[in-house]
Amino acid sequence: MEKYGSYYKLLDELRIAKGYTIADLCEGIISERTYLRQIKNGSKVNFTIFSRLLDRLDTGMGQFMTYMIHFDKSDTGVNRFAIRVHMYHFMDIGPIYELILKYKSDNKIETLMVEAFKLEFEYLINKITKDEFKIHYQVILESLKSLGTENLIVHLIKFIYHSYFKEDNIIDPKKFGQMLIDYNSNLSLFFYIMLMDKFLSFMTQKETIDFDIYEQILKKFEAYFIYINVKNYETSLETYHAFLYHVKHDYKMRDSYLYKALMNSLVIHSTYAHEAYKDLIRHGFNLDVDQFLIDYTLSIESSLLR
Questions:
Q1: Is 294 part of any domain?
Q2: Which Gene Ontology molecular-function terms are recorded (predicted)?
């Protein structure tokens, strides 16, 4: 259970938009007093109750998350900024970045997470060097140590650093993977899905992996995909399935999944994101991406002519 009272504020906006009274929404699920307390002071959220309230509004969790990320202009910008940095989607990030520069919170861990994504973004756009990125990020890690807290956001902050500076060995991939498998997500699933995606992407590019852990995390990633059903995650899902078939030497299935993923990438990714994605394929599959697309397209055309 984690503090996500701001979710209730957004839920209440949906309630008003759909013409429900508080009594109509809460009947048989939660007391009106508790509902109002959630909105006011951000009490702990029960995922089961929250899901039932969404059901009554005829709104799925995936729809709610999409609205929260892309359309809720009253938020602080944190989720919208994080998802764009994670997916290398920088086209409309400028105004959100300006919000982040002014961001303040009493929550120390959330503040450190925002700083982590800000540093990653500034490195990716060449505003800071890799050395500067590392030096500033190590300050964040030292601050985490002083807090002595371990939760999903802390794991996310650490893994972002590890993905760029794996030689520092700040995490054990096997233990980290097991943590992701054992984790019971509630409303932190936005960052849980993101962290699984980061981990699978990282492991796809390693020379040796724990196949069992990779497959178990992929199954959880696929199960949670329905909650944030966006094309970027669909591309990731296809890529990781392709990698499993690659490891199993089933190249026919690998190529089928990989071709779909690459075609998706060509459509949805920015130039920067597509080049980063091609690097992942080159490292993980040891393939020339452009030649693969040519060869597979020719094989499709050839099969149609038979």
A1: yes
A2: DNA binding
